[in-house]
Amino acid sequence: MLGNFIGVLFDGIAYGSLLFIISVGLSVTMGMMNFINLAHGAFAMLGGYVCVMLLSQLGLPFLATLPLAFLICALVGLLLERTLYRRLYKASHLDQVLFSIGLTFMAVAGATYFFGPTQQPVLLPDWLRGQVALFGLDVGAYRLFLIGVVVLVTAALGVLIERTRFGAQIRCSVDNQTAAAGLGINVSRVFSLTFALGSGLAGLGGGLGIDVLGLDPTFPFKYMVYFLLVVAVGGAGTIKGPLVAALILGIFDVAGKYYVPQMGAFVIYGLMVVLLIVFPAGLMRRKA
After folding, report:
1. Given a cut of 60, is residue 286 above it in pLDDT?
2. Is the sign of the CA dihedral 15, 152, 233, 87 positive or negative?
3. CA 98 – CA 87 distance, rounded (Å)
4. 3-state SS of 199-219?
5. I need a labelling partner for 61 at 20 to 30 A (CA). Which of 78, 206, 258, 277 fits?
6. Could you give the CA distance from residue 265 to residue 254 in angstroms, rounded to a whole number?
7. Which contiguous run of DSSP H or E holds residue 132?
8. CA distances from 159 to 58, 155, 173, 195 (A)
C-alpha cells in the first residue's frame, strides 16, 4: 500500500515537472509581457516534432535533440514576435486570444498536413527506459530524468531572472517601459528575447513530453487548459508559483486517475477551482 502511494506520488511529481517545463514559458510571456498567448502549446508541439524528425531522419541521440528543439522553437518564436506578435502588445486581451487561437488552428492544420494525424513514436535510449532503484523502490528512469531536468531549468531561470543584467532589464521593461527606455534599455529587443525564451522552453517541454504526453496534431488543444491552469493557479510572471501549481496538478491528477478513475478529471478541476477561490491572484505574485 505504501509502495503504491509513493509510486503514485513520484509519477505525479514527474508529470507535474513536465507540465512546469512547458508552462513556465507561458508564465514568462503572460505575466512579464502581459500577452495572452494561447498558441503556446503549438510551440511545444513544434518542439516535439523537431525531436522526432531529428531522431528519425538524422539519427541524432535523444539528448542531442532537446537543445536543438529549444533553439529552433526560440528562433521561430523570435521570428513570429518580430513579425506578428508585437503588433498586438497594446491590443485588447480579446484580440490577443483570437489571434493566438487562430495561430493554433493553423499550426494544427500544418502538423496534420505534413506529419499526418497519428501519434508520433519516440525511441528513448536504453538508460532512460525501464526502472531504477531509488531508496529501495523501483521508479521509472525517465520520470527521474524529468525531475532532474526541472531542477536544472528552475535553477537556471531563477539565476537568469533574479541575478543577471538581462533579468534586471526584463523586470524594468515590464514594470515601466518608458523609464526603461529612458535608462537606455532596448525594450523592443528585451521583449523579443523574452518571448523567444518562453517559446524555447515550450519546445524543450514538448520534446521531453513525447513519451509521457504523446504527440499528435491535437496536442495544443488537449493540453491548453492544463498549461493555463498552471499559470493561473501559480501566478503569472513568477517561477516558483507555476512550479508549485504544476506539482500540485500533477500529483492530484495522477492520484485521481489511479484511486478514483471513474471520476476522470473532475478531481483536478475541482481542486483548481478551490485554489483559485482561495488564491484569486495565484499562489505567488510577481513583485513589481
Report:
1. no
2. negative
3. 14
4. HHHHHHHHHHCHHHHCCCCCH
5. 78
6. 10
7. strand 131-134
8. 34, 6, 18, 18
Q: Are 43 and 185 in contact (CB under 8 A)?
A: no
Whether the per-residue pLDDT at 1 is higher than 70: the answer is no
Asked if 31 and 286 touch (Cβ cutoff 8 Å), the reply is yes
Give residue 53's pLDDT: 93
Q: What is the DSSP letter of 121?
A: P
Helix (H) / strand (E) element for 117: namely none
275 pLDDT more than 70: yes
C-alpha dist (Å) from residue 134 to 144, 145, 150, 254: 9, 13, 18, 20
Tell me which range, 154-158, 176-180, 260-264, 267-271, is most confidently predicted by mean pLDDT. 154-158
Which band of pLDDT confidence, cut at 50, 70 and 90, is reported for residue 3?
A: low
DSSP assignment of 76-111 equals HHHHHHHHTGGGGTTS-HHHHHHHHHHHHHHHHHHH
Q: What is the pLDDT of residues 31-67, one digit of tens each?
A: 767 788 889 999 999 999 999 999 988 889 999 999 9
In this prediction the pTM is 0.90
As a residue count, the chain comes to 288
On the question of pLDDT at 4 being above 80, the answer is: no
Return the C-alpha cell found at 273: 477551482
Q: What are phi and psi of 26, to 5 degrees?
A: -65, -35
CA separation, residue 253 to residues 12, 111, 226, 239, 259 (Å): 7, 28, 11, 21, 10
Q: Calculate the alpha carbon distances from 240 to 168, 190, 195, 231, 243 in Å.
A: 18, 22, 19, 11, 5
Report whether 75 contacts 10 (CB < 8 A): no
Q: What is the pLDDT of residue 44?
A: 94
CA dist list (Å): 80 to 61, 87, 208, 215: 29, 10, 23, 23
